[in-house]
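Friendly challenge for the regulars: who can give me the structure tokens for this chain first? No prize, just bragging rights.
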Amino acid sequence: MEVTDNDAITIRSLIEHQLAAFKKDDGEGAFAFASPGIQAQFGTPENFMQMVKIGYPTVYRPRSVFFEKITAIQGNITQQVLLLSPNGVPLRALYFMEKQPDNTWKINGCFLVSIEGKEI
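First reply, four minutes later:
Bragging rights claimed.
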């Protein structure tokens, strides 16, 4: 699948809006950016937020965010984002994106990868 410049702008905006929702503890807002499959997996915005708080503290409260290039990983359109964790550890978030039947984009998962480096 080819990603247009418009798609790239939309994907970045979607992730930025979800991060902003996490920052405000807006579970419903954050949950709305998740794909139908993710929504079905967690069922409610509260369950989703609890999972993010516990399992993804760097995504829940990043100290800084830097968007890298969009790539394809195993056929999945993936937005790479460098995040600085609350305690200063840099991580790369791989946001798996899913294009919906109505041509909108949703976040279909996030995988964190450690980056070699020292705490800042």
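Strands lie at 64-73, 76-84, 90-99, 105-114. The mean pLDDT is 94. Your move, everyone else.
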